TrEMBL record:
The keyword Cytoplasm applies. This is Syntrophin, gamma 1. Residues 283-390 form the PH domain. One of its GO terms (cellular component) is cytoskeleton. It comes from Cyprinus carpio (Common carp). Residues 68-151 form the PDZ domain. It comes from the Eukaryota. It is found in: Cytoplasm, Cytoskeleton. Belongs to the syntrophin family. Keywords: Actin-binding, Cytoplasm, Cytoskeleton.
Length: 514
């Protein structure tokens, strides 16, 4: 019996296809690097990943890896800077705070996140945190710093993303690379009350600005979306997006599982909408990425990404999305849609910890297991398989299979209008016929034989008919497809969905099957 579309499922699927835009600040794990802050922006057709950088805004903007800034020590507040990090963390020390007193004067010159490379010409790239603190304490009234903005400052330093920060009002004799070391030092012997509280920084006239700049652009059409729980570091609050050309976002980490789910749904929604728009003119019902479980694998990680496409009479399985006409001839496998069986897996049917899974039983009886990241995607695939099967049954109207009855070659025709018709293969003489409504039960031996139980319309007695097929599962699935199509025609919700989907996909005459 066909699975009908309930209102809640349709609402969820339709909500899934609404275009979404989102922006937020998150962490990015890129390879073996420490996670760092990025800004994520989702548009209708692209996901933009941005990192902070400093560019020159004097005249034409340009990037520079290093800048030189000269500042003077204030009587009150010293240099007005705080630092974190050091060689013990395999990074230079980083400016972590700028005092309110220095903020205006250093605006456009120094930034939170600048790594200090040289102090008065001394290369401190490989200095430990405490060593840099001592160099700055003894640097004199005027200090020339060579700095470079560290776009990928490790997240464990917890640097603020804005400049509105004030350092602590005390400087201790010892310091920690993970805590701010205030460089507002007042004990220098040249410090006197006659010094001006204003210490104008000296610079060659260039002004700089911290901005979010594009790090990576991920086109969403045919993009593959993966929840990070399939990776080696099992994280439910992280995901990655892989473009069709192989460009990967890296692992994006969200503060919570709920926020991660929101992003997954938003990206999947836009990807689905793009796919729907892209296939509306080429007779494709639906296509997208899934994860296929490898045969005889009991480990969760043993999945391979595949691209499935429901087009015309077939389900195609690819290792990459088909772009050209030639690509469609190079599918790994293809199956006739009415000779396979789609099933959503629930409860004990789930083969591992993945929640959103479905199986496809092929015409040979093989079960192939797939998983997707979201319930919305699962519902879309269910709807797509129902539509594809219905369209094809409606198109072909009947299907005939060779069979053996009492050692004689026969034919069984499954007809959308008439039901079941068995005839002699040689003479074409009809042996018997029954309507779909007369089938009261059936059983099979799992190998080749099917026993049908039909009710005689006159005597009301049950009549058993046993047939033997060389392609048992193809026949069973075809019968199920025809029954599902008959039932679907009686479901107003399905008919409404069918009519909306048929316009851009197929142009066939609607049949009256009542």
């Amino acid at each position: 019996r066909a699975r009908t579309f309930h209102c809640s499922k349709l609402h969820l699927a339709r909500q899934f296809e609404v275009l979404t835009t989102k922006t937020g600040i998150y962490l990015l794990q890129d390879g073996s690097e420490e996670p760092f802050n990025i800004r994520l922006h989702l548009a209708k057709d692209i996901l933009t990943i941005q990192e902070q950088d400093v560019i020159c805004v004097s005249g034409e903007p340009f990037y520079s890896s290093e800048r030189t800034v000269t500042i003077r020590r204030q009587t009150i507040g010293g240099f007005g800077l705080s630092i974190k990090g050091g060689a013990e963390h395999k990074i230079p020390v980083v400016i972590s705070k700028i005092s309110k007193e220095q903020k205006a004067e250093l605006s456009g010159l120094l930034f939170i996140g600048d790594g200090i490379l040289q102090i008065n010409g001394i290369n401190v790239r490989s200095y430990r945190h405490e060593e840099v603190v001592q160099v700055l304490r003894n640097a004199g009234e005027e200090v020339t710093l060579t700095v470079s903005f560290l776009k990928r400052t490790p997240a464990f330093l917890k640097l603020p993303l804005c400049e509105d920060c004030v350092p602590s009002d005390q400087s201790s004799g010892t310091s920690s690379p993970l805590c701010d070391s205030g460089l507002h030092l007042n004990y220098h012997p040249n410090n006197t009350d006659t010094l001006s509280c204003s210490s104008w920084p000296m610079s060659p006239g260039l002004r700089w600005e911290k901005r979010w700049v594009d790090l990576r652009l991920i086109p969403l059409l045919h993009a593959r979306l993966s929840h990070a729980h399939i990776f080696h570091f099992s994280r439910q609050n992280a995901f990655q997006v892989i473009a069709v050309d192989g460009v990967c976002s890296g692992v994006i980490q969200c503060p919570s599982v709920d926020e991660c789910t929101d992003w997954l749904q938003a990206i999947a929604s836009n990807t689905s909408a793009l796919t729907k728009h892209n296939v509306s003119t080429i007779a494709i019902i639906f296509m997208g990425w899934v994860d296929e479980k490898e045969q005889d694998s009991v480990q969760d990680r043993m999945y391979t990404s595949k691209f499935l496409a429901l087009r015309g009479s077939s389900l195609f399985k690819f290792s990459a999305p088909p772009v050209t006409t030639w690509d469609w001839t190079r599918a790994e496998k293809s199956f006739t849609v009415y000779e396979i069986m789609f099933k959503i897996l629930k409860g004990n049917e789930l083969v591992d910890k993945r929640k959103h899974c479905f199986s496809v039983q092929t015409d040979s009886g093989e079960d192939i297991f797939f998983s997707v990241g979201l319930e919305c995607e699962l519902l879309l695939w269910e709807k797509a398989f129902q539509m594809a099967t219905f369209f094809e049954v409606e198109r072909i109207q009947c299907k005939t299979y060779a069979c053996i009855v009492d050692s004689h070659l026969m034919g069984l025709t499954i007809d959308f209008s008439m039901g079941f018709v068995c005839f002699d293969a040689a003479t074409k003489a009809v042996l018997w016929r029954y309507k779909f409504s007369q089938l009261k039960g059936s059983s099979d031996d799992g190998k080749s034989k099917i026993k049908f139980l039909f009710q005689n319309p006159d005597t009301k007695l049950i009549e058993a008919k046993e047939l033997e097929f060389s392609n048992l599962f193809a026949v069973l699935h075809c019968i199920h497809a025809f029954f599902a199509a008959k039932v679907a025609c009686l479901d107003p919700m399905f008919v409404s969905s069918r009519n909306a989907a048929m316009a851009p996909v197929v142009k066939t005459k609607l049949l009256n099957v009542c």
